[in-house]
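Hi everyone, sorry if this is the wrong subforum. Our group has a chain we'd like a structural model of before ordering constructs, and none of us has done structure prediction before. Sequence below.
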Amino acid sequence: MNTPNADTPTSDTPRRGSRGRVWARVTENYLTWLLLMAGTAAAGAFLTALAGGFEGWTVVAAIVTVVLFAGCWFSYRDGARRGAAEPHIIQYHPDSPDEVIDIDTDTGERQPHQD
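Answer:
Right subforum, don't worry. Here is the predicted structure as C-alpha cells:
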C-alpha cells in the first residue's frame, strides 16, 4: 500500500504558503476588470466630449482612455505570463482519471494498472 511522504499532500486543500499567491492572483484579475470598465467609461466620456465640441476635455479623455486600456492589457498579459510559469502539479486522488490503478479484491492492495 502506498504511504504518503512529505512531498505529496494528502488532501485537496491548498498548503499553508499558497494562500498569498491565490490572493494576489485574484486581486490582479479584479484590477484588470476594473481597468477595463474604467477604460470603457473614459471612452464614453471621450465620445461625449468630442460630440459636445469640448476640445480640451476631448484630449484629456483620449489620454486617460489610452492609459487605462494599456494598463488593462499589461495587467492581463502579466497574469497570463505568470500563470504559464507556474508548475501544474498533478496530485494523486483516488478518483483521479490521470492515474489508473488496479485494486486486488482479496487483499485490497493497490497496484498501477498494467495492460
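For your construct planning: Residues 21-81 form one domain. Residues 45 and 64 are 10 Å apart (CA to CA).
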